[in-house]
Amino acid sequence: MRVIDSHTAGEPTRVVLDGGPDLGSGTLAERAARLEAEHLDFCASVVLEPRGHDAIIGALLVPPSDPACVAGVIYFNNLQNLGMCGHATIGLGVTLAHLGRIRPGRHRFETPVGVVEIDLIDANTVSVVNIESYRLAKDVTVEVEGVGPVTGDVAWGGNWFFLVKNSPIALTGENIRPLTDLTLKIRSALEKAGVTGKDGAWIDHIELFGPAEDPAAQSRNFVLCPGGAYDRSPCGTGCSAKLACLAADGALAPGQDYLQESVIGSTYKISYQPGPGGGVIPTITGQAFVTSDTTLIFDPADPYRSGIRL
Ligand code: PYC
Fold it and tell me: Is residue 55 within 8 Å of residue 225, measured between CB atoms?
């Protein structure tokens, strides 16, 4: 199986070019549901140790059903498929450019949650125009074990997020473990309190905000991903959810640039335009770099060929 690895603002993406499972026909959402229901071994084997690690997001290339799209893509971790993934979309754009499959300019990718557009600005820089994002609920308070009440907004950016404005723990590299523990507890508290996304969807990403270190940036974040890893990048879908909240609060005008910093100090330039459904159409600009072009080998005799799952 040939894969190309990249990182976007520090967050890794593994694009699967061939050798993935046959997902049959149907919409991208149907094929993504099939990947999750029938091929989790494949997902875990690609992204987990010993071939990978829990922060890697896989990107399986599939034929698009919309002929205007240059590719169809299903993002996944070891547990599930992701509706959309901002950093991996930037990584995919840079990977396809590295392979000579796309040139600078506008391109469309079909994802399970809709068509997204990218502008490949140069070999490493991509702007993603994401699907319409919106805030579902403002100022939801939950009681978090050992912490007390925590208040945040519930918003959609291609994945479901709970966004907490003022992190009670400083957003620094040495605090990754306590930040991870805190966000896992917040996620459990949301589950216990029955706080969900639309139609009962699991809120699988938790995002904390605090002051930026870079004087050019307006905010720093820490994002817990579904599998328990933290996002090294400022999280494209998390930035989209945040833009929806800023717009709903009247705190950022359409077209105005905002610099979002991640917990490792990498940045995305983000902005939005009003969406047709009352939400926002986010634009996320960041940089990715290809790190390897690899053949993964799955030896039937290898007891850990499907990944180490504890
Ligand atoms: O960039 O949207 C994102 C993302 C989601 C999970 C990890 N990165």
Answer: yes
